[in-house]
Amino acid sequence: MFFKLSKTFMKKAIFSSLLFIAPAAYADWFALNMTRGITDISNEVFELHMLIFWICVAIGAVVFSIMFYSMWAHTKEKNPVPAKFHENHKLEIAWTIVPFLILIAMAVPASKTLVKIYDDEAGDINIQVTGYQWKWQYRYLEDDVSFFANLSTDLDEIYNLVPKGENYLQEVDKQLVLPVNKKIRFLLTSNDVLHAWWVPDLALKKDAIPGFINEMAVVIKEPGVYRGRCAELCGRHHGFMPIVIKAVEQDEYDQWLANGGKAESTDLASTEK
Fold this sequence. Notes:
6 helices, 5-stranded mixed sheet, disordered C terminus, 39% helix, 22% strand
């Protein structure tokens, strides 16, 4: 009687949980999943991520299916006398070779993508990014342009005196302006502690380390505004180090440089990504 009640209760609990969780999980799948991004590398990384994900799902499905089948088929009632065996060379060879082949199948595309990510050749535009507590400095190495980007969110929003804006803690007083369809190489370092420069839409993330230069490159395909943040805990105001990149056409970028890197008043909402 007790076991029947337990089974009934468990079925109802599982069914209720699925009704409650499944729609939310389905709706939030794309929000929780990795960002696809808008660059060739970011799309390639996303596809690689999904490939590895489904390989892991398939492995889990096979392993748990065998496990549950074994639990069902080899109960004491069905097999009162336990089987006695010492070794099985064919089985041991199989469970050695199959994981090896799976790892090779994952390593080949992953290695090709890593080679593209760690491209350290000079870019069309080279920018030094220096992390400070708690702001970023950008220096265009081929041009006489250098500036700091500070958080511009109103203090009243931070202290809950007014409603928080759409880009709360993700807005700066001066954006990093870049041209589309050009190779941009970033040279990252830090002036004080460890930081990390992260822009999900562009698949960019590298540590900024004092006394050391990290490199990464990107080719932005679409004009727009792309936001990121410091991804390494760096002190009290770690959350106050947003990154805002404005990607523009070459003509607009040239005009921006001609103005000495001074931003013009534009409606950023129209190009927000």
